[in-house]
Amino acid sequence: MKKRIVMIICVMVMLITAMPVYAISFSDLNEGHWAYNNIINLANQGVVNGYEDGSFRPENMVTYGEFMKLVICTSVPGNNYANLSGSNHWASGYVLGAELRGFLPAGTVSLEKLDQPIDRINMAKLLALIDARVTAKDYKKTKELDFVDIGGLPNEYLQYLERLVNRGFIKGNPDKTFKPTDNLSRAEMVTILVRVMGGGAWWIKK
User: Fold this and answer.
1) Would you tell me how many other CB atoms lie within 10 Å of the CB of residue 43?
2) How many Å apart are CA 1 and CA 123, to the nearest integer?
3) In Å, how far are 61, 97, 185 from 92, measured between CA atoms?
4) Separation of CA 79 from chain center
5) What is the structure's pLDDT at 3?
6) In Å, how far are 70, 95, 112, 148, 182 from 91, measured between CA atoms?
7) Which residues of 83-104 are buried (b: 16+ CB within 10 A; e: fewer)?
8) How many CA atoms lie within 13 Å of 167's alpha carbon, on the beta-carbon side?
9) Between 143 and 12, where is the model more confident?
């Protein structure tokens, strides 16, 4: 009798382990999309998710609040910053958490901005500031900026871009533009997060 029970358990385990694992899919995303692999990768890890209608909306803009949540959750996985009291805005805790951690100087991201779309150059600013503080080290300069549309940017922002390019976080577009004033899309945000997470340098303890 015991042998029979053991055999049944073994068969059940074999059946369970043999069951295929289905990847997450989205109704508006196919393998032809340039960020498909990055989106599916992070969705399967639970870093990003889609909407209730089953879509991902990769070209939708990212707000300051969404950006802060994704970046902070990437740098400090398992954090409870959502519960910090900053204001009644859902993302205020992530801003406050970043400030308490020393990732950003206080007031860098105002609460009034949290529902506003973040453009690519301000994404670069925040990402560079956070990266410098999370890693607590400088970058090795091996690449020069060759974007053709950044000539009018202040030197401060050029330094942010230089850091991110040399860290491998941003690469620009095939036509060598960066499009600094364009709003950051969800697909672009995911791709940047994949690069940030690639080396595991941002994963620190709570």
Assistant:
1) 19
2) 65
3) 19, 8, 21
4) 15
5) 53
6) 10, 7, 11, 34, 22
7) eeebeeeebbbbbbbbbebebb
8) 30
9) 143
Rg (CA), the chain: 21
Q: Which two tokens stand for residue 26?
A: 């989205």
Q: Which residues contact 124 (CB under 8 A, 6 or more apart)?
A: 157, 160, 161, 164, 170, 180
Closest listed residue to residue 126, CA positions, set 90, 147, 95: 95
Residue that the structure tokens 């398992």 belong to: 78
Question: pLDDT at position 1, please?
Answer: 56
Which residues does residue 185 pair with via DSSP β-bridges, in sequence order?
61
Instruction: Return the biggest CA–CA distance within the chain.
Output: 81
Position 96: which residue type?
L
Residue 206 identity (one-letter amino acid): K
Which of 49-53, 135-139, 153-157 has the lowest average pLDDT? Answer: 135-139
Cα gap 46→190, rounded to integer Å: 12
State the amino acid at position 64 in one-letter form: Y
7: its two tokens: 């055999």
Question: From CA 181, how far away is CA 171, in angstroms rounded?
Answer: 16
Question: Which residues are CB-contacts of 12 (< 8 A; sequence separation ≥ 6)?
Answer: none
